[in-house]
Amino acid sequence: MNQPLYQTIFNDLQTAILTGELPVDSQLPTEKELSRTYKVSRITSKRALTELEQLGLIYRVRGKGSFVKSASPTKTRRILFLLPYVADLSVGDFSKGLNPVMQDKQIDVMMTTLDFLQNKTAKELINEFDGLIYYALDTEQHLDLLFELSLKEFPVVILDKKIYELSFPTVLSDNFQGGALAASYLIEQGHSKIAYLFGTQTHPQSVRQRYLGYLEALDKAGLTFHTSLDDKSATLDELLSYITKYEVTAFVCENDVVAIQTMNLLRQHGYHIPEDFSIIGFDDIQAAALVDPPLTTIAQDFEQLGKLAGDALVTWLETKDRPSDSKFSVSFIKRQSTKEK
User: Fold this and answer.
1) pLDDT tens digit string along 192-233?
2) Is 278 helix (H, G, I), strand (E, B) or coil?
3) How large is the average pLDDT for residues 113-142?
4) What Å distances lie between residue 29 and 16, 21, 50, 204, 273, CA to CA?
5) Which of 52, 79, 150, 200 has minimal CB crowding within 10 Å?
6) pTM
7) Can you tell me the distance from the alpha carbon of 4 to that of 48, in angstroms, rounded to the nearest whole number?
8) Is the CA virtual torsion 198, 204, 206, 211 positive or negative?
């Protein structure tokens, strides 16, 4: 059975392309030339060229003709997602929001810890990945490497904290709003001696923002007592003496881990929660709902933060335009660790 006339032209040109007889970017005969060579109509020769174009073997340039296209396969895009600790209870699950975004765009995600960068150079990262989502545990950590990536205009989205020395977009929760929400609720419950409890003597950006929100709420309520940012006694190590000295009745803790540690310590010394003290955490980690009593807390929407970070990175990869910062609202979760005074 004779094959269609256009198929003969198609087969001959395809063979010439695949064998290298027609190298990449070389020009193919025109429709008119093919019609004359094969003694067919221009419609037939055009169909052969259209079939080659649909297979990705050639490309057309208006007014110039058809040319052989590179046959190299499309590289699968790959991003790096770095967290302090992959299974850290104090860091929420961003992957629920991030993974669907990346799967939709057929982008592979490698999730690992910040230690991955220990012996990596900027050149190696650029060669291995198309972009990076970086959880900023410490705004000074890996600063030189991140700065070099910014000079190379490599797409990086920062999570949780703004690194002001870099021009990368940041996705973070409204920590200031969270501190204000926590303190305002305790004030409404009748507490006037509300302390802000720090976990350590170092105060990262997110903790400072929560603390400033706490201060604003106290100021609006006309309350004069507050924990000082540099008060070394406002930590777990000095908790009991701090309570006695200032007659504290409620705590806003820098995160849920500190709040849970505080409840445990107070119980060990004969106190009851919330009968003796009201306590509010921050983050709504899984353990917050499981402790006794369940912890009142400020919830970050980690799933939404993961989605926002993924969307920002995808936008950057596809448009080559650097996205803007994104700040997402927090929400108040009332449980049983607080009560009216």
Assistant:
1) 999 999 987 777 888 999 999 999 999 999 999 999 888 777
2) strand
3) 92
4) 12, 13, 13, 66, 85
5) 200
6) 0.72
7) 10
8) positive
Residues 25, 60 contacting (CB under 8 angstroms): no
- In angstroms, the CA 303 to CA 317 distance is 21
Kindly report, residue by residue over 253-283, the tens digit of the pLDDT: 999 999 999 999 999 999 999 999 999 999 9
Residue 283: left (phi > 0), alpha (psi -120 to 50), or beta?
left
Task: Please give the Cα distance from 239 to 233 (Å, whole number).
Answer: 7
Q: Residues 221, 187: contact at Cβ < 8 Å?
A: yes
Q: Which of 124, 120, 161, 164 is closest to 142 using CA atoms?
A: 120
Name the helix (H) or strand (E) containing 87. Answer: none
How far apart (Å, rounded) are the C-alpha atoms in residues 332 and 320?
Answer: 37
What's at 314, amino acid-wise?
Answer: V
pLDDT of residue 53: 87
Number of H helices, E strands in the chain: 11, 13
Percentage of the chain beyond pLDDT 90 is 70
Q: Which residue has the tokens 């540690």?
A: 261
φ and ψ at 164, to 5 degrees?
Answer: -70, -20
Parallel/antiparallel/unpaired status of strands 156-159 and 250-253: unpaired
Kindly report the length of the chain: 341
- In terms of Cα–Cα distance, which of 336, 226, 323, 227 is closest to 279? 336
Tokens of 207: 């903790």
Q: Please check the confidence at residue 1 and state whether its pLDDT lies above 50.
A: no
| pLDDT tens readout for residues 37-91 | 999 999 999 999 988 988 888 988 888 899 998 765 556 899 999 988 765 545 6
Extract the tokens encoding 155: 């797409």
- Backbone conformation region of residue 160, classed left if phi is above 0, alpha if psi is from -120 to 50, else beta: left
Mean pLDDT, rounded, of the chain: 91
Taking 70 as the threshold, does the pLDDT of residue 145 lie above it? Answer: yes
Going by C-alpha positions, the residue among 142, 143, 87 that lies closest to residue 111 is 87
Amino acid at 140: E
3 state DSSP class of 226: coil
